[in-house]
Specification:
Elements: H1 3-6, E1 8-13, H2 19-31, E2 35-40, H3 42-51, H4 59-67, E3 73-77, E4 96-101, H5 103-110, H6 117-127, E5 132-136, H7 143-154, E6 158-159, H8 173-188
Parallel strand pairs: 1-2, 1-4, 2-3, 4-5, 5-6
Length: about 200
């Protein structure tokens, strides 16, 4: 099966806490031989350093270490590369997910700012009626956050908060991460075995 037959997804990782969710999602898509267009914000690189304890001086090396062993096709894009194919509605793909999604990025999408490639690509998804999933990771939420979530939801985006469940009886941090990433993959329509579903045997 070719990568095109498997599907093409755009993944954004922002500076919200929880970069590991985005990393795990990209790894799973690549493991299943999907084609992935990846956009990382500058703040995401800071979180890679602070939360994942990665040396981000050589960003190409970081990308290789995180994703190089998988079979899928990975394309990374600079945050301000408006010439990237994903910036155009004519580029065919199967949807976009921003995981985690910062409140700043959410605001940019909600107002149609298109201030960078991540916001522009999200705007393309909405205008073309394609799948856009946002995984906000913030607490507590103020009224602006809530209104922006409602605003993007009304025009077709799906809000999937980074709220892990516990009915699968997680025994490790990996179990909690995999549950959230699995829910994200469910929303994308991608099969996986990352967690035990309700009613299934452990």
């Amino acid at each position: 099966m070719t990568n095109r037959q498997k599907g093409i997804y755009v993944v954004g990782i922002t500076g919200a806490s929880g970069a590991v969710y985005g990393v795990r999602l990209v790894q799973e898509l690549l493991r299943q031989s999907y084609k992935v267009h990846l956009i990382l914000t500058e703040a995401a690189w800071r979180v890679f350093k602070e939360e994942l304890l990665l040396d981000t001086e050589d960003r190409n090396a970081v990308i290789h270490d995180l994703f190089g062993e998988f079979d899928g096709e990975l394309h990374t894009h600079h945050l301000h590369d408006y010439g990237a194919p994903i910036a155009s509605g004519s580029y065919q793909n199967d949807g976009m997910i921003i995981i985690p999604c910062s409140m700043g990025t959410l605001s940019g999408i909600a107002t149609g700012a298109s201030g960078n490639l991540l916001e522009r690509t999200a705007d393309v998804m909405l205008k073309e009626g394609r799948q856009l999933i946002l995984v906000p990771r913030e607490t507590p939420l103020n009224q602006l956050h809530l209104e922006n979530m409602l605003r993007v939801s009304k025009v077709g985006a799906k809000i999937l908060p980074a709220m892990p469940g516990y009915y699968h009886l997680p025994k490790s941090m990996d179990d909690l991460i995999n549950f959230l990433v699995g829910k994200a993959l469910d929303s994308l329509g991608v099969e996986h075995q990352l967690f035990t579903r309700w009613g299934e045997k452990q």
